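Hi V.,

You were right to ask for the full record rather than a summary. Here it is.
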Amino acid sequence: MDPEHPGVVAVTRRSTNNVQAEGEPITSVYSINLESEDPESVFSLISEFPSARYPIIMHGSRFLSANHITNTTQVIDTESGDLICVLCTPLVNNDPTLSGFEDFRCLDAVVWQQFVLIFRQNWIHLYKIPNRSQASTLHSNSPDHPPEIRPVATHKWPWRIDSLEVSTHDSFVSRHARFMSQPLPPNQPPMINILLRFDSWYPWPVNTLHHYTLSPCSSYHRSSAVLPYLAADSIPFMETSITSHMRLFTPSDLTIGQYGTALWIDAQSDLTSSTQAGDLGQRLAGKVLRSERDSSWDSDRPLLKPGLPGVLLLTNELEENMGTSGSLVPVMVFGVWETHSEWSKVAVEEGEGRIALGSVEGRICVMDYVPRGMEL
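Predicted structure:
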């Protein structure tokens, strides 16, 4: 979500009208009016357009949706509804008949200026997409055939990924500049946090989460030919591993906040044992992620100075145990359910200090978290 754009939520569903073919996916973008006294008029429809089946991300006026059959990703202008371009996946040996065996399913994406990073189960692909004026020209010249964009850089993961969540890191320097109304640092690509769980040969994924960081290229400049990511000094770097046990058929999820707080749902409900999953139940746990490669993540600096909004406070105990890379930061347990496994989605808003849990039954639970010593 882009704070400078009115769209706050995008909903993809199957069409039931006569304009769009029945059963085809259609996406609606809504704005929100928090001052409205009528709950039914809080959300206002901005635009509606056809899309691919699986929504990935909305960033400003760009909406990305994936087609898992063709292994392509659509980039759509939410204001006009035009299909800007299609991000294609390169096939090994350039053999289209192998597409069904190559799992390039899109898991997440990051948009920065004219570049898009697509995180797939086996690969990371970097694309450079046309800007609005270029897209308008291309669309007017060939409205029925949007341009197909190939990746300009790639990176292959060592193993297939089961689940993944990425987030651009809002650095301490940028937060401090905004709070003090000072000029922001030069417009450079942000560092990206990656939290993932690799797949396995068993019917469940591995019992370990991995925190990677993807730093921008040190020599990148907008006017140069150097790409912002996936060059020699810009590949995923593993910061730490976190034990997180899984159980067959137990719902799980993970997320990362913009300041580096990771949360996940797993099956480690037996607090008396840290080496195996419980027989029943779920756990909601989290950890403040740190990096060795970002100077704004200094180990001797707390993540929040008094008066600065929107960052998870560190207690003295956490600060004393903080290592250089954060590997000694303890895992925080926010909730344990010993008898049921109904939670399937988790989200965090660090600016407000809130966690949202979604259940398989459609219920949503919103919780506030307050660091020790800060209770009212």
